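Incident log, support desk, overnight shift.

02:14 A customer reports that sequence design results differ from what the structure should imply. Their input is reproduced verbatim below. On-call engineer (initials T.W.) acknowledged and began investigating.
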């Protein structure tokens, strides 16, 4: 879909340089500083920053298009940076005091996350004492804050999934990201020991899904902050999968058009199998984009109308994204499986696209085995299964 997107136009100018750094990102096991500087220079990190701090508050469809394009250049950079961006949407749902802690003195501050509730805590006056080895914090070396998950006992005797907003001065980073895919995302572990987190920097996940958080209503003219946090937080995963698949279509054509079989001299690019594979994968990726754009547009329409989705709509949105990822992985596999042994060399782009494509379907939010159960239960009128995230 063609839509006005000035930020995407600026992004297109820096993508060639980011693409050149893709191999370096894998070697460094984190996003190169040059990539971060290029993306900050065009202001992509301000996508979901509140306007009061100089942010852009762009729509989710605009953001999704940017992340898909970025993923075609370097999926690791897209993975880490998209999360650094979407966390700003999440922080904007915290009380104003917490937002000021992060952005008042420097609106370029970024936050990584480890949102699974692995954190440990002790109650204390005015907040909690927090500890934990918080894993899966993508882009953490480029962040000055972190959103960390934990389960906090409430007055009813049950536990609430909460997020603690913690400054980088209160944790160290365990350099433990040795992965077969998304190698350059720098998804490392935050080590936190007995750090005080004040009450204004703690929010319940449920409240942030239902318009009940401390930051609700702070920006009455906003078109993005009257929305549950999770669809924004997770929006990058499917966009990245789409961007990888779109780039694989181009890569397949580039390498196959001139490919000659070593033993027979046959032209691969004009053979029927190659034509069938590129045709079906192109249709699949086109369908994935159309389906994802429809979902992004619904997100934007609900947020602009200040309307919160019900459980059924949330289930649909989440599982739509997971199905897009499934389609994109299928499209990539169809192409890569016929590209020949030479494209398994580590200096070949196709093998990196193949690896990175598969990990987009390994996140808890995009695991289609989980999502199909969630959606199936909703379609059949069954209550949600608490064992499914």
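02:41 Re-run completed on a clean worker. Output:
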């Amino acid at each position: 879909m063609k839509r006005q997107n000035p930020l995407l136009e600026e992004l297109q100018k820096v993508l060639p340089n980011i693409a050149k750094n893709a191999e370096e990102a894998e070697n460094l096991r984190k996003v190169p500083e040059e990539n971060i500087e290029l993306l900050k220079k065009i202001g992509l990190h301000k996508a979901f920053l509140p306007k009061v701090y100089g942010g852009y508050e762009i729509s989710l469809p605009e953001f999704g298009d940017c992340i898909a394009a970025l993923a075609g250049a370097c999926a690791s950079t897209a993975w880490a940076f998209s999360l650094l961006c979407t966390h700003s949407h999440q922080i904007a749902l915290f009380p104003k005091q917490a937002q000021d802690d992060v952005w008042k003195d420097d609106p370029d501050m970024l936050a990584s996350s480890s949102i699974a509730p692995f954190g440990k805590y002790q109650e204390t006056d005015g907040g909690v004492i927090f500890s934990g080895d918080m894993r899966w914090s993508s882009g953490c070396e480029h962040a000055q804050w972190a959103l960390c998950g934990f389960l906090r006992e409430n007055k009813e005797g049950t536990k609430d999934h909460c997020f603690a907003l913690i400054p980088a001065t209160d944790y160290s980073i365990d350099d433990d990201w040795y992965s077969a895919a998304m190698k350059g995302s720098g998804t490392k572990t935050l080590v936190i020991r007995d750090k005080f987190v004040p009450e204004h920097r703690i929010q319940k996940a449920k409240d942030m899904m239902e318009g009940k958080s401390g930051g609700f209503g702070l920006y009455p003219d906003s078109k993005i902050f009257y929305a549950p946090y999770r669809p924004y937080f997770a929006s990058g995963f499917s966009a990245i999968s789409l961007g990888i698949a779109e780039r694989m279509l181009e890569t397949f054509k580039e390498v196959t058009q001139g490919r000659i079989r070593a033993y027979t001299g046959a032209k691969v690019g004009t053979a029927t199998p190659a034509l069938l594979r590129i045709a079906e994968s192109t249709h699949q990726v086109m369908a994935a984009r159309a389906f994802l754009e429809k979902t992004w547009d619904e997100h934007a329409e609900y947020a602009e109308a200040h309307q919160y989705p019900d459980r059924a709509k949330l289930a649909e949105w989440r599982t739509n994204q997971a199905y897009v990822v499934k389609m994109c992985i299928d499209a990539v596999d169809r192409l890569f499986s016929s590209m020949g042994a030479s494209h398994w060399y580590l200096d070949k782009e196709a093998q990196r696209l193949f690896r990175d494509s598969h990990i987009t379907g390994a996140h808890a939010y995009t695991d289609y085995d989980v999502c199909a159960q969630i959606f199936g239960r909703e379609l059949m009128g069954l209550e949600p299964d608490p064992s499914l995230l």
